[in-house]
Amino acid sequence: MIVLGVESSCDETGLALYDTERGLLAHALHSQIAMHQEYGGVVPELASRDHIRRAIPLLKQTLADAAVSAHDIDAIAYTQGPGLAGALLVGASVACGLGLALDKPVLGIHHLEGHLLSPLLASKPPQFPFVALLVSGGHTQLMRVDGVGQYELLGETLDDAAGEAFDKSAKLLGLGYPGGPAISRMAEFGDPAAYQLPRPMLHSKNLDFSFSGLKTAVLTVVKRHNTNICEQDKANIARAFVDAIVEVLVAKCMSALKETRLKRLVIAGGVGANRQLREALNAAAAKRRYEVFYPELQFCTDNGAMIAFAGAMRLREQPDAAKREYGFSVRPR
Ligand code: KG4
Ligand code: ZN
């Protein structure tokens, strides 16, 4: 079975073809980062318009790269939400328009399920069950995953998501958008002893997170410098921020593994690309003989491959989940 995946929830247009027998056949992605950069964040209207411009050329490229005819597609999976309403509508209309034209069934996929299953696209995928840490721009969740569709929420952020904390703190430091990679690079040059920032909820008895206080702490330190903040100060603050957030994320993952008595940890979502987080997780897991799995770097942030894959996994469990019903709806929240 060949599933076409369409992702357009935020600022990446992603198309991919996944074959349940041969694996990922091809995928194509266009990132709008350069377009939104001058505004310091994603401008929803610009995002929607760009998805419209990119979707069909990327679809053609994906079909050509996979050497597959559109008629060979068995089902079309698209991101139904959460995400920006206008952006989601573009992907949904592309998927449903194609479905109607080609007489193929379509199914809506939860964006987070796409992220959650993305480590299974790797050459050495984890076996179920596992604990998953989902760290993206909009979400921070710990889940117990027993199989496709079998997800138990163990804990989540009470306010900002981890990626949001990265982005907002980077903005406070005058680093560009997206802030995650920028603050991470800056932190490499920082002195770890220069500043101490809070580790919110590190010792709470549950698996929930809270990151808005950390961002406020960054703001307080930045304000203390007035306008004459030098590059070294910025690097020191970046280092303190990264150390704090990484320590909390790692500690909560270890607690989740201990609580569930599972031995496998899977990281998904954009922040999963973070080098400092990966190093700290690998070290903590090795000490306790846990295994950690990551998606390939290219599949950490938004992409069509994870949506095609999630669609294929859903259809394997429930073949009638895709329908020839094209009155699509999106679910931004
Ligand atoms: O999963 P994703 O592409 O989109 C959402 O579904 O939100 O995640 C984007 C988030 C952004 O907040 C971005 O700053 C963060 O992931 N991110 C990183 C890194 N790469 C992306 N954060 C820290 N370090 C990185 N290397
Ligand atoms: Zn995402």
Spatial strand order of the main sheet: 3-2-1-4-5
Radius of gyration: 20 Å
Number of helices: 10
Strand content: 15-25%
Q: What hetero molecules are bound to the protein chains?
A: 5'-O-[(R)-(carboxyoxy)(hydroxy)phosphoryl]adenosine, zinc ion
Family: Belongs to the KAE1 / TsaD family.
Catalytic activity: L-threonylcarbamoyladenylate + adenosine(37) in tRNA = N(6)-L-threonylcarbamoyladenosine(37) in tRNA + AMP + H(+)
Cofactor: Fe(2+)
EC number: 2.3.1.234
Q: Mind sketching the topology for me?
A:
Blueprint: E1 2-7, E2 12-19, E3 23-31, H1 33-37, H2 44-66, E4 75-81, H3 85-102, E5 106-110, H4 111-117, E6 130-135, E7 140-147, E8 150-156, H5 162-172, H6 179-187, H7 212-224, H8 231-260, E9 264-268, H9 275-288, E10 291-293, H10 305-317
Parallel strand pairs: 1-4, 4-5, 6-9, 9-10
Antiparallel strand pairs: 1-2, 2-3, 6-7, 7-8
Bound molecules: 5'-O-[(R)-(carboxyoxy)(hydroxy)phosphoryl]adenosine and zinc ion (ZN).
Residues 10, 115, 136-138, 163, 166-167, 178-181, 184, 269-271, 273-274, 301-302 line the site of 5'-O-[(R)-(carboxyoxy)(hydroxy)phosphoryl]adenosine.
Organism: Herbaspirillum chlorophenolicum
Protein name: tRNA N6-adenosine threonylcarbamoyltransferase
GO molecular function: tRNA N(6)-L-threonylcarbamoyladenine synthase activity
